[in-house]
């Protein structure tokens, strides 16, 4: 193991210890050796084109009937407080608190008849296509990002193929950025804003922290300390170039140093480099958690675009806590506009940069909410039906797929499963959904059981 060390008593401006800041055997991946990670990724080679996915997880179960499937003619105990507004797609109405998206719904496709949600408060199904129970029974289903990391490899040697922006939160299953499952830790995401694994275990041991940024407020000043560290890395690497040990290292160890010493990831996360007008369009948020759930961090939408532009293939993020058993309308009157702002800015930005044909955006939660409003003005868990919003990826947008009954309780027509959505995403990436990857025992495991992409989208 090689450690990039400093004085034990020193610290950066945000309080992080200099001692053992970077260790080659750690990279926030549970202590996995980085050369091992690189060696495992290389087995699949590098993809020929830069297709990418940005996946937005709405933790807690967003209210489908208060966002994309309003029922204004339903009884008062069901229809809710929000009014529908027209979009730029005829006959396609959405919530009044999403005026920005309403003006550009021709760039989105919404599925109103997503079925098969599990009962768990977990990001797992939105990351793998399978419920947590099924995933455990099958030995741990890998997340889409881990699959892509294995099959496609990195675009650039110093940029990880899979990045998870979800921070540590009070309810750990909501903070899961995408477990590698039976593929092993070599294909886990690079998680810059978390000091722990998705199981909630802390990562305070310097040997396992790796490239960890701050879990508190993300502002350019905090990244400035990282930029000063890069100067130390440059000096360290110049000294290593003449080292017989490094000269004799294999290519995987050399590439490990390329990633650890690269400025590209840090620069992609440094939003001070963006035009202030564009950053204002996205909105400037903080990392304040909502009780035990993810924050509404507007910055993560812009970071996701910058990471993809830098060469990352899959970026996951968790936005907000949507588990509204009480005060559903008052809290979502504040939360939905934030999603409207960040998501519309992201999709618009991708189109303006000519990235919309290659980058798919998917937005969803673990289940919907009950049609009936409860005594606390809230909606409870409702697995029977949910929604998913999609954009980019060369998909045919400006349409609604599927419908629900008059109370938004059950799918009325065109029920679509989570694996079908994943088949479409893999299709957008140029990956055949019938592909198999080996599990820990070497047995071939198909990526999906339902391997048909959604025909209306492709």
Automatic annotation (TrEMBL):
InterPro entries: Alkaline_phosphatase_core_sf, DUF1501, TAT_signal. It comes from the Bacteria. This is DUF1501 domain-containing protein. It comes from Paludisphaera borealis. The lineage of its organism: Bacteria, Pseudomonadati, Planctomycetota, Planctomycetia, Isosphaerales.
